[in-house]
Specification:
By secondary structure, the protein is mostly helical. The protein has one domain. The protein has 5 helices and no strands. Helix 1 crosses helix 4 and helix 2 runs antiparallel to helix 3.
Length: 118
């Protein structure tokens, strides 16, 4: 891996930690989704080749935050309602899908911008 790859990987991990923190400390889900879209889009622009992986990491920050909160006995401000396994699976799947799609859109934007003019 090159230095650029390591820098993008560190930024993606920091962004996913921030998304998890926001998810645990806010009651509005649209704030979390907006951060997921923004960070995944920027990660897709920064690294087109691994956009799917950065989308998975950033989108997977939400279920990982709830798992961390359960292990560390940290109470989130608000749990997804109705509380249950199916709700947790659907919230995790939704955020991962949003992250991957936003990262793919970012990679597409970078690819369009990188084409030479004819």
């Amino acid at each position: 891996m090159r230095a650029n790859d390591w820098a993008v990987a560190c930024i993606v991990l920091l962004a996913s930690a921030f998304v998890g923190y926001v998810e645990l400390h806010t009651t509005e889900p649209s704030v979390t989704v907006a951060f997921i879209v923004a960070f995944a889009l920027l990660a897709g622009v920064a690294k087109r080749r691994l956009c799917w992986l950065s989308g998975l990491v950033i989108g997977g920050a939400v279920p990982a935050a709830y798992a961390f909160a359960a292990l560390a006995h940290v109470r989130p401000r608000e749990f997804p309602q109705p509380d249950g396994l199916l709700t947790n699976i659907s919230v995790g799947a939704f955020t991962v899908i949003v992250g991957v799609v936003a990262a793919a859109c970012g990679a597409t934007i970078a690819r369009i911008g990188a084409k030479p003019a004819a």
